[in-house]
Amino acid sequence: MNQDNLVWVIYDITNNKTRGRIARACKNKGLYRVQKSAFLGKLNRTQIAELKAICDDIIDPAVDSVYIFPMCEEDFKKVQLLGQAFDRELVSDEVKALFL
After folding, report:
1. pLDDT grade, residue 49 (50/70/90)?
2. Per-residue confidence (pLDDT) for residue 74, from 0 to 100
3. Pairing of strands 65-71, 32-35
4. pTM of the full structure
5. SS (H, E, C) 52-90
6. What distance, in Å, lies between the first and last C-alpha atoms of the chain?
7. Does the CA dihedral 58-62-66-67 come out positive or negative?
8. Half-sphere exposure of residue 16, counting CA atoms within 13 Å on the CB side?
9. Cα(84)–Cα(88) distance, integer angstroms
10. What is the chain's Cα-based Rg?
11. Deepest of 29, 57, 73, 93, by most Cβ within 10 A of its Cβ?
12. Alpha-carbon gap, residue 84 to 96, rounded angstroms
């Protein structure tokens, strides 16, 4: 079974071009930007592996970091948000509904 999981992708990348390529890779996989360097959405295991491989090819492992956090919906409901959790202008209704 290749079921979709909620996935957070969070990165810290110093080079603008590299950061842009990671953002495009996340968008191309159907993830939604929730902050400047944070994406959220649903991916299956194959898509997660593909995104990992793409990011691995793009980043400089000596200075960059990319975190990919698969999360079940039950655990997602336990997420606690403080302050301005995400930019509502950047996210879709699908992601907004996850936070209700």
Report:
1. very high
2. 87
3. unpaired
4. 0.81
5. HHHHHHHCCCCCCEEEEEEECHHHHCCCCCCCCCCCCCC
6. 28
7. positive
8. 0
9. 9
10. 13
11. 29
12. 13
**Where residue 95 falls among pLDDT bands split at 50, 70, 90?**
low
| The total number of residues written for the chain in this structure | 100
Taking the C-alpha atoms of residue 36 and residue 1, their distance in angstroms, rounded to an integer, is 33
Sign of CA dihedral 20, 23, 28, 29: positive
Given pLDDT bands bounded at 50, 70 and 90, which one contains residue 73? confident
Structure tokens at 10: 């969070």
Say which amino acid occupies 100.
L
Strand 32-35 and strand 38-43: pairing?
Answer: antiparallel
